[in-house]
Amino acid sequence: QVQLVESGGDTVQPGGSLRLSCVASGFTFSIYTVSWYRQAPGKERVLVATIARDGGSINYADSVKGRFTISRDNAKNTVYLQMNSLKPEDTAVYYCKAVRILTTYWGQGTQVTVST
């Protein structure tokens, strides 16, 4: 059974940090490009960061550059999103997506809330 399971979401104060994890099972994770997306209430889902299958190419949305870091451990079938200097506008449900050619898998999401 194919699964992508996100975890690590929480409520934090502005300026705080969180590390999200996305664990894959049921497919050959290491040959997939993986991205993190987020969706705030009432808004569209938007791309946050992408990492190539070997970690050699990484891209970030302008809104998170310098604050977020995406990484992966193919031996653990896991992609991470380290989020520092969090802002209230980072509040959203965060999803991971794995893509290879015409095949796409999504996780169920994890809630991140940045609030005083």
Write structural notes for this entry.
- Strand 9 (92-100) and strand 10 form a beta hairpin.
- It is globular and about 40 Å long.
- It has strands at residues 3-7, 11-12, 18-25, 33-39, 46-51, 58-60, 68-73, 78-83, 92-100, 103-106, 110-114.
- Helices cover 0% and strands 53% of the residues.
- Strands 2, 4, 5, 6, 9, 10 and 11 form a 7-stranded mixed beta sheet that branches. A 4-stranded antiparallel beta sheet has the order 1-3-8-7, with no helix packed on it.
- The protein starts with a strand and ends with a strand.
- The chain contains no helices and 11 strands.
- It is mainly beta.
Concise synopsis of the structure shown:
The chain has 116 residues and is mainly beta. The protein has strands at 3-7, 11-12, 18-25, 33-39, 46-51, 58-60, 68-73, 78-83, 92-100, 103-106, 110-114.
Number of helices: 0
Q: How does the major sheet shape up?
A: 7 strands, mixed
**Proportion of residues in β-strands:** over 45%
Oligomer: single chain
Distance between the termini: 40 Å
The gyration radius over C-alpha positions equals: 13 Å
H/E element string? EEEEEEEEEEE
* Outline type: globular
Low-confidence stretches: none
Overall pLDDT metric: 97
Helix percentage = under 10%
